[in-house]
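User: Please fill in residues for this 178-position structure.
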């Protein structure tokens, strides 16, 4: 059995401890998840677009969008945890494909979707510096239009041992160079 990368271990531990819902995704709560989804939807038109949701979990972002009347032309979710990918598939959303894979170890999977919008909603928060920036670069190269991501930008936000934060100014400077 392949060894679980360090940045995914918190998910494996949560699963082994029986975590469900937003707890299995390591989100603070459902409200904080919706705040992030609302920011994504507010800052980029997603209606009719081909979307890649990197680290999609249970495809909660797609459920959020659909509940608000936003229907992507195609939603592709990429998820490293098999149990979360299965949960996303069980939802049987139309125009939805869930792929299993680790975007850090297999960045080529980011290109498979042919997405005009690539979204990381929380999936960068456990990455060390090199994979964090490398993942952003690969995602930018994979999208034809938009890269949307959030990250923890202060030690106060990254108060759990498995979380990593980056100075906002450094991340913005990197994104501008892309």
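Assistant: Residues filled in for all 178 positions:
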């Amino acid at each position: 059995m392949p060894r679980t990368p360090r940045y995914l271990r918190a998910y494996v531990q949560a699963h082994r401890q029986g975590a469900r819902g937003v707890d299995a995704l390591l989100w603070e709560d459902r409200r904080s998840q919706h705040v992030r989804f609302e920011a994504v939807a507010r800052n980029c038109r997603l209606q009719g677009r081909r979307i890649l949701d990197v680290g999609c979990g249970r495809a909660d972002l797609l459920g959020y969008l659909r509940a608000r009347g936003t229907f992507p032309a195609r939603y592709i979710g990429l998820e490293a945890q098999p149990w979360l990918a299965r949960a996303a598939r069980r939802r049987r959303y139309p125009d939805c494909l869930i792929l299993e894979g680790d975007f850090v170890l297999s960045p080529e999977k980011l290109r498979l979707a042919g997405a005009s919008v690539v979204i990381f909603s929380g999936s960068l928060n456990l990455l060390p510096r090199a994979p964090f920036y490398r993942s952003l670069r690969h995602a930018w190269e994979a999208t034809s239009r938009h890269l949307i991501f959030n990250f923890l930008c202060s030690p106060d936000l990254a108060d759990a041992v498995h979380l990593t934060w980056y100075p906002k100014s450094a991340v913005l400077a990197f994104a501008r160079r892309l």
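For context: The two ends are 37 Å apart (CA to CA).
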